[in-house]
Amino acid sequence: MTHAIPIRREDRTGRLSLALHLAAGGLPVLPLRAGKGPLGNCRTCADNACGGRPNMKSPGPCRCPRPCHAWAAATTDPAVIASPAWTAAWTHAGVVGYHPGGAGVTVVDLDDADAVDWAHTTLPPTRTVTTTRGEHWIYQGAMPSSNHVRPGVDIKSLMSYARWLGPGAGTMAVLPPVVLALVEREETTRPRAGVDSSSLTLARWDRSVATGCRHTETYVRTGLSRGVEHVRARSEKGAGTAAYGAARFLAKQHTACPGPCGLDALGEDLIDAAVSVGVPEPYARRAVSNGLQTALGATA
Known about the structure:
Shape: globular
Largest sheet: 6 strands, mixed
Helix content: 25-40%
Distance between the termini: 43 Å
């Protein structure tokens, strides 16, 4: 039988003090679990039932006082950070996180020694922070976030969060074109799972890839949003399984459609959700692909 390790009061106080200090310097902060993932949404915000926060990709009306919706909850407001709802969240938090894009910076997350070597030979020097497996290279300027733009390299900026590991060393350089090009190349060459008959492979689902779907766009997007929230609410250990289950559920809703329904595009959002909470992309991609194919195969 296992028991949760209690978090000492001084640890909680230290994280809150650090968060307030960082916020005073203009860094939007949020509490993260010990596994680096965001805290789960409250009951009101579960499955995005609240509609999402105004600053999310799909703006919504949510004004929840709790740190729900991961990076979208990050703030520099000391009244919010030290509020009763957030104080309770710090009790369960393991580390302090921040929203790079909200601070106007981009983090090039290098996960291993090979990635660090690549950065030293390819990227202009900038402020660096040592991580448990590699380094964070921080540049001045925000850009779209994207995971696995090359082996061992993630881009964390807009619509993403990072763990605070210290101020780092070196002078911060301006975001260079070579980093911007990483996301542009990844978005145009990203492999697809190819789980339906659509020949159109856009970056995200829309009606143009679902010409044979019998459902309304609202129905599809609501189901996808709930699936994404289900995945993000899980820990790193359970997010892959949640992604499989969400993909299988979504695919089952389309088994009576004449097709195509753009399931491969729907799957990309589930993959990104799993990766955002720590699941390796190859595993997330395999889990979602298996979930989609299992549902389709069951009706073949």
